[in-house]
Protein: ABC transporter ATP-binding protein
Organism: Lysinibacillus fusiformis
Amino acid sequence: MRSVKIENVSKQFGQVYGVNDINLEIKAGEFFTFLGPSGCGKTTTLRMIAGFYYPSKGKILFDDRDVTRLQPNKRNIGMVFQNYALFPHMTVDENIAFGLQVRKFSKTEIQYKVDRIRGQVHLAAYGNRKINELSGGQQQRVALARALVIEPDILLLDEPLSNLDAKLREETRIEIKRIQSELGVTTIYVTHDQMEAMAMSDRIMVMENGLIKQIGTPQEIYHQPEDRFVANFIGETNLIEGTIQAINGENVQVRTLNGHLLTGRKQQSSPSLTHMIGDKVFISIRPESIQLGTGDNTLTGKITFVEFTGISVNYIVDFTAFSLKVMIINSYDQIKKIGEDITINMAHDSLYLLGE
Ligand code: ATP
C-alpha cells in the first residue's frame, strides 16, 4: 500500500499530447478513479504509472521512491484489463498461481496464497475449473485474484467491467469494491462510466484533452462541478445562461436571456467565476433538484416531453429561451401531459453558478 505522486508529467506522441503537465497525489489505500471521455488521457496516465510508457517530462513517485524510469516488473503492481488476458485452457488456480511461479515461491506457499485469495474473491470451490467454463463476471474475479495474489503495492484496473452485461457489471462492481476495501490496497481505476466512478471511488479525477478538469470526492464532483464540462459529464444537468444582475451577501441574482430573475448562492470554490455584476454565467441545476409548485425561483412553462420510468416522472419544460429537464422522484401525483402548463421552483441552494 503506497501513495502515488505525479509531478508535472507530460506524455507526447509526436505532436499529440496524451497528457499535458498533470499533477496529482493518490493517497495510500485510496480508491482513485480516472474518468473522462475517449481520448482524454486516462490510459496514457495509467500506463505511465505501470511503466509501459515513460513520461516525456516530469516525475512519478511511489511514496518517496522515484519510479519514473523503472521497468514495469520492478514496480510491484497488479493489473486487470478489460479483456481479462487469462489463459483459457488452464484452471483457475493455474491462472492465479502464474505470477507467484514467476517470482519463484515454493509449492506450499503458492497453494496457501492461491487458496486464500480464491476465497476472498468468492471462488473458493472453483480452483479446478477451466477458465472457459466460467461466466464473464467469474473470469474477471479470477483476473482480480491473479493481480492481487502477488500482494501488489498498487492495483491498476483499466475498464475491467466493460465486457460484462449491465446486471453483471453492477454485481462485479460491488465485489471489486468489497475486495478492495477489505485488502486496503491503493487502487487506480480507469473508466468512462460516471455512475461506476461515483459508486466506487474515494476520489475521482475528471480529465478532458490530456488535462485534469477537477479532482474531488464523488459528492464534490457532483454537487460542486468547477466548470460546464464537469457539470455536463457527471450526471445530467440543466445549464441556463444569464448575466449577474445583483449581489446581496451570499445571494447572487442572475437575469436569464429571456428576462427571468433567478437567485442562487455565491460559490466559495469555483475558479471559473469572479462574481462581478455584469458577468456572463451559467446556472447549473440538477433535474432532481427541481420541485413542483411555488417556492424559491418559481417559473411556469409548457411541458414538451414526459416519461415515467418507475423511479421518477421526467418532464422537459419549455420556458422560451431555455428548457429544463425536471425529474420528480417517487411521486404518486397525477402525471401531467404534453402541452399542459406546469409550475416549478428551485431552492436557492440548489442553483449552482459556473463561469463561462
Ligand atoms: P479511451 O477511453 O478511448 O481508452 P483514453 O482516455 O484512455 O481513451 P488515451 O488512450 O490515454 O485516452 O489517449 C490520449 C491521447 O493520446 C489520444 O489523443 C490518443 O490518440 C493519443 N495516444 C495514445 N496512445 C498513443 C500512441 N501510442 N501513439 C499516438 N498517440 C497516442
Notes: The CA atoms of residues 244 and 279 lie 5 Å apart. Residues 13, 16, 18, 36, 38-44, 192 surround adenosine-5'-triphosphate (CB under 6 Å).
